[in-house]
């Protein structure tokens, strides 16, 4: 019988976990370092001086709202994504709501989206005054399945999600949208830096929406978001909507709100953006190690995509909850994105369709498990995750050990 692990903090990153070793859990050490699912402290420590300087520059300047940091970051981010305009907003949710409102959709417009995403995607459609229409996902990419979108008789927009950094099939979705006279707005919250050929995620639709929530590929020190677009008129409307619909001081053309990216977050994000490519490369290396270490092991790994930004690395297997418990016993934190698809969430019941409506999304919710992945993750932790999964799969099969773990590297 394994006792729940006890935690003790020893220094900054030495979270140690004590276990009762038993015959049921061969290979479990008496005392092991805990493996966090995500850890921003190392990234911030590495940037310490630069971050401090940026923050104090803003505080000392007295320019706290829509000043030079936001406008410079907008220019830099537009350049990174390859779009003409970028408009900084308060969060990824703001980016979605405001771009839906800025793109000229008529009241009551139907917007097709995925049921397998964070709640913000569909919630933004309702908040913007439109109607979410769910279509099932593709079983390999877990993004919106164009064949399912094709089956929907009428809609005015498609809001695909580039889930976990994988890009949705934009060429197929754009083709369907063009044939129906519909718009495409991209939810690229989880895909900052992903590419399809020469194009970055977010740059192909009429608008691309990004989140700078701290766990994202480019994460701030708080909330933040961005909309990119090539359409000058959409950009103009977005700038109004983020500041109470004002076209000039105290002239309010439309109802807007306080939805601005603030100067402090922009300053933090400007420090981080030049490091993003390096961080994406490290995420890709970890993903590659997971994929090569787990193939042939009896669980489903994501199909390999060199251009994906790997915001999450998710495996799938029927015994998901048992694997998660097994890893947790070894101090390895994992997470489930998403345990319940949106069409089965109480708040989306009016648009949901009930159990069985989107079987691929439902199956993904039952079987998916996200493994730790972040740029500063030590290689020895990557190996411990692989060891943990292999010990589970071997215990389960008992017949055919799928993998002998080589000596762990030192760091
Ligand atoms: C796919 C997706 N869309 C939208 C959002 C909303 O972003 P934010 O939390 O910055 O509002 C998130 C955030 O997790 C997300 O994952």
Describe how the helices and strands are arranged.
Layout: E1 6-10, E2 14-18, E3 31-33, H1 41-46, H2 48-61, H3 68-81, E4 85-89, H4 92-102, E5 110-113, H5 119-127, E6 131-134, H6 146-150, E7 157-159, H7 170-180, E8 183-187, E9 195-196, E10 199-200, E11 207-211, E12 225-229, H8 232-241, E13 246-248, E14 251-252, H9 263-272, H10 276-294, E15 313-316, H11 320-329, H12 349-352, H13 359-367, E16 368-371, H14 379-397
Parallel strand pairs: 5-6, 5-7, 7-8, 8-11
Antiparallel strand pairs: 1-2, 2-3, 4-12, 9-10, 11-12, 13-14, 15-16
The protein binds pyridoxal-5'-phosphate (PLP).
Notable traits:
globular; 14 helices; alpha/beta; 411 residues; binds pyridoxal-5'-phosphate; disordered C terminus; Aspartate Aminotransferase, domain 2; seven-stranded mixed beta sheet; three-stranded antiparallel beta sheet; disordered N terminus; Aspartate Aminotransferase, domain 1; 2 domains; 37% helix
CATH topology of the largest domain: Aspartate Aminotransferase, domain 2
Strand order of the largest sheet: 4-12-11-8-7-5-6
Give the CATH architecture of the largest domain. 3-Layer(aba) Sandwich
Helix content: 25-40%
pLDDT averaged residue by residue = 91
Roughly what fraction of the amino acids lie in strands? 5-15%
How many domains comprise the coordinates? Answer: 2
- Label the overall shape: globular
Q: Distance N terminus to C terminus?
A: 31 Å
Name the hetero compounds present: pyridoxal-5'-phosphate
Could you name the CATH homologous superfamily of the largest domain?
Type I PLP-dependent aspartate aminotransferase-like (Major domain)
- Name of the level-1 CATH class of the largest domain: Alpha Beta
Judged by helices, strands and strand pairing, the structural class is alpha/beta
Tell how many strands the DSSP assignment holds: 16
Radius of gyration: 22 Å
For the biggest sheet, the summary is: 7 strands, mixed
The SSE string, one letter per element, is EEEHHHEHEHEHEHEEEEEHEEHHEHHHEH
Note the total helix count. 14
Uncertain segments are 1-30, 405-411
